[in-house]
Design goal:
- It comes from Streptomyces bauhiniae.
- Keywords: Hydrolase, Protease.
- By secondary structure, this protein is of the alpha+beta class.
- The chain has two domains: 128 residues, LON domain-like (Archaeosine Trna-guanine Transglycosylase, Chain: A, domain 4); 84 residues, Methane Monooxygenase Hydroxylase, Chain G, domain 1 (Up-down Bundle), CATH 1.20.58.1480.
- The chain has a five-stranded mixed barrel with strand order 1-3-4-5-6.
- The chain is globular and about 50 Å long.
- The chain starts with a strand and ends in a 17-residue tail after the last helix.
- The relative contact order is 0.18.
Length: 246
């Protein structure tokens, strides 16, 4: 099994392979990650690991969007993660490839990255300017009946989107092409649904594609039933744009 040591970027969300994630990087330890990545030539992958923080652990000020003014201001690479950072993080994460890293005049960064590969965290090192982890690549096994399950998930996902759009009198774009690869479908749906971080993390660490699709099918049916009964809905912006795939 392939292993590597890569910088860690803890967030309050899970990244999935093939999905694009924009980041605004404000905190010094994560600025240090970006400065290190900029040493890598542009024609080579600038890789780091996006890992979800477990419930009950405070998120560092670097995240999607603006920094959290109420976040822990303790300094150091492991600040806010306790004496053993590995215990504060989920063990299954996703390698990200930074397609663009733009430094602002104030030293903060705008980053656009894409999830590439699922990995398992084996150990975390906090001896440097930022956290690093030894990670092991996790293969994506298809599982039983992944193709048939993917078809069912796509149908349910389209109904889910229509319910979200219909509640706000919006229609889904006719050119919303959807993939046909079961693993890609499973990741796209996991990223596009309005779910909490623990549920997204559960989908990320599913043992195979078929298991993830089965879970998603149950979630989609349940969420669509709830949406049908609600007078107003959260996060309907999901119906305005397609999720970006690599």
């Amino acid at each position: 099994m392939t292993t590597a040591r890569l910088p860690l970027f803890p967030l309050n969300t899970a990244l999935f392979p093939g999905l694009v994630l924009p980041l605004s990087v404000f905190e010094e330890r994560y600025r240090a990650v970006m400065r290190e990545l900029l040493k890598t030539p542009e024609d080579e992958p600038r890789r780091f690991v996006v890992v979800a923080i477990r419930d009950g652990h405070q998120l560092a000020p670097s995240a999607t969007g603006l920094p959290d003014p109420d976040a822990d201001t303790e300094e150091g690479p492991a600040a806010g993660f306790g004496p053993d950072p590995l215990k504060a993080l989920h063990r299954v994460a996703c390698v990200a490839d930074a397609a663009t890293i733009r430094e602002r005049p104030d030293g903060t960064f705008e980053v656009l990255c894409t999830g590439t590969t699922r990995v398992k965290l084996l150990s975390v090192d906090d001896s440097g300017a930022f956290l690093t982890a030894e990670v092991e690549e996790l293969p994506e096994e298809p599982g039983d009946e992944a193709g048939a399950l993917a078809e069912g998930v796509l149908r349910s996902f389209q109904q889910y989107q229509k319910r979200l759009a219909g509640a706000h009198e919006r229609s889904i774009s006719a050119d919303s092409d959807l993939p046909d690869d079961p693993s890609v479908i499973s990741y796209l749906v996991a990223a596009a649904m309005v779910l909490d971080t623990p549920t997204k993390q559960r989908l990320l660490q599913a043992p195979d594609t078929a298991s993830r699709l089965r879970d998603e099918l149950k979630l989609l049916r349940a969420e669509t039933a709830i949406i049908r009964s609600l007078p107003s809905l959260p996060a309907f912006e999901l119906t305005r744009a397609r999720t970006s795939l690599n």
